[in-house]
C-alpha cells in the first residue's frame, strides 16, 4: 500500500539526537541507542523531520558497543523481537542436531507452514487454524552455497527479489491479501551460514504490526476459473514490474536514470498485459471492458516508452504522468468484481505513483 512522502521539516528529531548520544556514551547499553535510533527513523519517515544521519549514527555506535554483549548474553540472536523496516531479518542458528539447526530454527520451515515467534529469533511451527505470527509461502536455497559467506547485503538483496517475485505462486489473487499483511523473510547471517542446512531463504506473510493472525492465506491458481487465471496472469506481471520501481523516497530529480530504466520495463509489461488480454477468448468477462483495458494498456506502454527515451526530467515526469493516467484501474476493478475476484478499493492506490513496499 502506498503512503505519501511527508513534507520536509525544519526540525531535527529528538530521538535521533538521543540515539547518537546514548550510542556513544553508553556503549555497553548500546541497545538503548539502537532502540532510540530505530524509533527515530520511524518518526522521521512519518513526520519528515531532520536527523536521519544522527539516528543512523546512533544505531551504528550502539551496535558496535553491543557486539560482544549480544554474543555473550543471547548466544547469537541478532534481534530479540523486531524485523527491519523492509521486512527482513538475518537469523543465527544454535547447532543442536546433525543438520546444525535447532528444533525451532526458521530454516526448518516448509511451504505452507505457519509458525509463531520463539526466543532468540526462532520460529515454532503451529497449526494455521490457531493464532500464529507468519505463514511460509516460499522456501529456496540461497544461490551461493560455498563455505564463504556472501555478505549480508548480498543475502538481503537476493531475499528481497525472490520473495517479491513469489507471492503470487502461493496467493494467486494477491489483492485478496488483507491490507495489513505484508511480506517478510529470513536469511542467514554469517554465523548461521556455517550450517549448510541454513543456507536458504524463507519468505512468509505476516501482519505488518507483527500481531497474531489465524487462518491460511494460500490460494493456488488451480482453484480459479480460466477467466480469473487469465486476468491475473495479465495484471500480476504488470504489478510485479510496478513493484520493482525506484524507491518511494527517490524522486525523478534524484535518480532520473533509474526511472528511465523502470519505464522501459513498464512499457514491456504494459504491452504484455495488452497481448495477454487480447489473445484470450473470454467467456464470462465483459468484452467491452476488456477492450478498454487493452486500449489503455497500449497507451500506457507508449508513454512509458517515451519516458524511457526522454532526455530531460520535465519530459520524463510528463510521460510518466500520462502513463499513470492510462493504467485502467477502473476497468480492472470492474473485471475483478464481475469475475468474483478481490476488489480492495485501496489496491489501485499502488498505481498512483511510487513504489510498492517490498516485503
TrEMBL record:
Domain DUF4190: 15-71
Domain Septum formation-related: 112-224
Membrane spanning stretches: 15-41, 53-78
Keywords assigned by UniProt, alphabetized: Membrane, Transmembrane, Transmembrane helix
Keyword Phosphoprotein assigned: no
Keyword Membrane part of the UniProt annotation: yes
Source taxon at top rank: Bacteria
Signal peptide, first to last residue: none
Protein name as it appears in the record: DUF4190 domain-containing protein
Record organism: Kitasatospora griseola (Streptomyces griseolosporeus)
